[in-house]
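Worked problem 6 (solution included).
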Amino acid sequence: MKRRAKVLIAIVCTLMLAPAVAFLIYDALVFWPHRDHMRTVLENADPLDRSPPSKVRAYIRAQHDGALPSAVVARQLHSRWLPRTGMLDWHVRSFLWERLVSLHLSQDEVLGLYASLAYNGKGQGLNSLSQRLFTKPLDALSDEEAAMVVAYTWAPDLYAQHPERLRARTDILLSRARTTPLNRR
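Solution. The predicted structure is:
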């Protein structure tokens, strides 16, 4: 009886530890080698995208219901560096990269990557979108303009054709930024 209990405990422990070990191996072999690439993206980014102004940060968080946009950044990063495969693989990869981005990157790095990599309809970056929409840099925008720049990244092609929808999305962000606690991780 004791031997069966020991075997059962060993099996249960193995089953519980296997996912953690697999996660650590994936981290070491797949995610970590791209850490220097992430730093390079940030170093080469527009300074206002690398470190967005506080009001832009607030609207980015409002866009994602008060949380950091780690999932968006994770998808942009793994799509950039890893080969495209099946849908299940993509979902598993998204899940793993979101956890690893949250684990390894600071809030400033996540927000900087988000602002730098955000698709703006004609390229990437919030500052270039700000220049295109308002002919001024991110740090010179009013609250409403900053919310509009962030809102635009939600669906750039749609909002380019339907400015009334962009206005509605901007209003949502302005409202959320006033009512949502924006200090969650």
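Discussion: The radius of gyration is 20 Å.
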